[in-house]
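Technical annex B. To support the medicinal chemistry partners, we prepared a structural model of the target in complex with GI1, based solely on the information shown next.
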Amino acid sequence: MTIKRTDFPDNFIFGVATSSYQIEGATNEDGRGDSIWDTFCREPGRIQDGTGGDVACDHYHLWPQDLDLIQSLGVDAYRFSVAWPRIQPDGKGPVNQKGLDFYERLVDGMLERGLQPYLTLYHWDLPQTLQDEGGWVNRETAYRFAEYARVVAERLGGRVRSYATLNEPWCSSILSYQIGEHAPGLQDRRAALAAAHHLLLGHGEAVKVMRDIVPGSSLGIVLNLQPAYPASDREEDVAAARFADGTFNRWFLDPIFRGEYPADIWDAYGEDVPTVQDGDFAATSQPIDFLGVNYYSRSVNGATGNVRPSESSYTHMGWEVYPQGLTDLLVRINHDYTVPPVYITENGAAYPDELEGGRVHDAQRVEYFKAHVQATSDAVQQGVNVAGYFAWSLMDNFEWAFGYSRRFGMVYVDYGNQQRILKDSAKWYQTLVTRQDAGV
Ligand SMILES: CO[C@H](O)c1c[n+]2c([nH]1)[C@H](O)[C@@H](O)[C@H](O)[C@H]2CO
């Protein structure tokens, strides 16, 4: 079997993705304020290799070369995020024009190179001053987010045709306020569920505001979804999988597409459920023009915890390589919900890449991409309206709590000299997206 670009509809978008905190650096430049990740990285023990995003890939200064690099891959689109602390250093009120100027230059640079900008308003870098007032646990942050969305949309307007409000509200709430592995690093389920609710409220309020400012643009949200499989057909394993599906997937899909929380999980959360005010679900379930799905792997659930199938291979993050899970997930959401066009807004893998003679032969990542692009095509063949696929990531970057110890890029970054070196996976992707019939 060979996966070819022509296996997809002509208007199918292939792209690459990054995020502001992971690549920009320049955290104290041109008026940028502190984000919760600047604070988190300064707390000893939070980041595996003790690093932070102060320099990262120095994209804030190297963006012209990076856009040339993206253009050289032959992709249609570039998914990036705007750093709220560059736009409003205090998270509210005064706007930092130098911050807006940077993103205006960046977007114009994409357009000049024939790259379609896919903008994410929030990819986790909350202004620290808002966290000082409770962060997403504070309902007011939802309204500050809508004000920030207005500022960005008014400046970038129709030049950007696709705006995602949030990247992965599950990560910005559960991983950050309950599990504590991400900034701000709290461990409080009640706070996490309040944060999740206010993130979804902020999403809805931002969509409402932007509808009038960028009427021709496509507005959506990006969710990390993970299909949950039972370890066996025993009742307790099936129940474990349904609970995992509920807390990870349905807790976010239902408020967005059904205007409610899933009853089984609401009941399971008991006293920790969020305060829902009249009108909240009308906001969270605002009609949207696309759903972004970030897929990396599945979960296999047993009554006593998750299972790691021994017959599978695993990435450097310890995530099972399971491309069928992407097809199953897309078919399921298409069946269970009335969804708009879906983009795979992130898919990729970390492997311990080695630079050998100026080359990186990342064969495992090539196989990962081939299998998941194929899985995307399989979902399209099964009637799912998938409109695009963005590889995570363009280049190696700051991998959150893992620092720089995990490389997800299809382009290798030598952090010593900020050199970018195409890995074999970038060359494979280039042949795919430029219709050179990449073989599987
Ligand atoms: C369980 O994986 C999540 O869906 C997920 C994986 N990832 C993400 N979310 C984030 O959106 C990126 O910033 C990460 O760099 C990337 C790789 O870890």
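Notes passed to the chemistry partners:
The pocket of GI1 is lined by residues 19, 22, 167-168, 171, 224, 294, 296, 346, 392, 399, 408 (CB under 6 Å).
The first helix runs from residue 20 to 23.
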